[in-house]
Structure to design on (369 residues):
């Protein structure tokens, strides 16, 4: 009898052919010894999830503030639920928690929901990596901290931070430190065309001068502080939040660079309301993911001129329509300066070449971001 013959219950497997033992009629369905239920795409709604605010993330564990502003305020340690897939949790996220949310030692809750982010500060690993990574969520402003001297300000690095702020939907604020070493006006002129808000701090006999103005700019907001090593960012944070106890370092007299001191990102509550998010040292601030159109949206006086551009214009080509828009005076009296500033930010997206770097500005510098 052929291999493909219909099964005859009176024949043994050997008589039905060599492959008859694999006939589907011979399949035996055995019960699952573990007794687990089959997987389903349906997920629980978790209507009873407790709201939390992520104040720190460390080695796969998130530390979430629950009951903010109430007598029951506490920090709950939590892990990301598997049902969230690849979606990561970052400082600033608003999340939903289930499980043990008592906040007592050795307990672990689960994050089952990540609320939609109002803003997201993103970066790529370097300028050749187009994959963007969210660093901080739901911040209102990006405070770019740089010293007027010791170490010297790195304008290209500040420009890159400004690009990150603009494309993330955050308001940039320039904070100049060590104003007692050099007139701040000499440095502020570098970024005058951007119309940035700026504050200046300096050391005085009784502490940090200019701190009250900084507090005023941060009050009621969630602010991210970024800046390369040695600029005094941790000193500023400790002055703003006295119990923060962020480590401080010094500037190397030979290299002119500082040593990274902050090692973990954390959201710290300001005494007058609001949050300041201090950032650890990250060896780069890649902008490969940034599209020129996203930068242009930060220049509303130039944005309408995009209609004059050829298709696929990168806005730094000879036939860019923005040049004609500015030449006709349609961008205002400061149009030419603003266009130059816009193209300066576009250039900051690309890796620095040796011929683009001044003697006091190394091609790559660490940045706390």
């Amino acid at each position: 009898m052929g291999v493909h013959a219909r099964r005859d219950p009176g024949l043994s497997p050997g008589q039905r052919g060599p492959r008859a033992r694999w006939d589907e009629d011979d399949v035996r369905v055995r019960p699952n010894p573990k007794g687990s239920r089959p997987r389903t795409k349906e997920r629980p709604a978790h209507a009873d999830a407790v709201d939390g605010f992520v104040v720190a993330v460390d080695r796969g564990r998130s530390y979430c503030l629950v009951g903010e502003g109430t007598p029951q305020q506490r920090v709950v340690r939590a892990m990301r639920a598997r049902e969230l897939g690849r979606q990561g949790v970052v400082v600033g996220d608003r999340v939903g928690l289930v499980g043990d949310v008592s906040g007592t030692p050795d307990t672990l809750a689960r994050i089952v929901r990540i609320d939609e982010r109002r803003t997201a500060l993103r970066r790529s690993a370097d300028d050749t990596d187009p994959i963007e990574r969210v660093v901080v969520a739901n911040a209102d402003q990006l405070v770019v901290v740089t010293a007027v001297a010791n170490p010297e300000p790195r304008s290209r690095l500040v420009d890159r931070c400004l690009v990150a702020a603009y494309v993330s939907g955050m308001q940039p604020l320039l904070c100049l430190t060590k104003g007692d070493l050099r007139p701040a006006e000499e440095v502020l002129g570098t970024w005058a065309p951007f119309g940035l808000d700026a504050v200046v701090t300096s050391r005085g006999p009784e502490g940090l001068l200019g701190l009250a103005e900084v507090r005023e700019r941060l009050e009621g907001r969630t602010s991210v502080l970024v800046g390369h090593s040695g600029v005094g960012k941790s000193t500023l944070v400790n002055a703003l939040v006295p119990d923060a106890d962020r480590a401080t370092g010094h500037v190397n007299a030979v290299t002119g660079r500082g040593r990274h001191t902050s090692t973990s990102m954390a959201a710290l509550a300001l005494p007058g309301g609001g949050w300041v998010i201090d950032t650890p040292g990250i060896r780069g601030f890649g902008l490969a993911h940034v599209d020129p159109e996203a930068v242009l949206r930060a220049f509303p006086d130039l944005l309408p001129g995009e209609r004059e551009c050829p298709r696929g214009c990168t806005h730094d080509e000879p036939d860019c329509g923005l040049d004609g828009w500015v030449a006709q005076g349609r961008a205002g009296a400061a149009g030419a300066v603003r266009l130059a500033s816009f193209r300066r930010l576009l250039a900051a997206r690309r890796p620095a070449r040796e011929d683009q770097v001044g003697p006091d500005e190394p091609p790559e510098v660490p940045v706390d971001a």
Summary: Residues 248-262, 354-369 have pLDDT under 50 and may be disordered. The CA atoms of residues 264 and 280 lie 5 Å apart. The first strand starts at residue 50 and ends at 58. The domain at 292-354 is CATH 1.10.40 (Ribonucleotide Reductase Protein R1; domain 1).
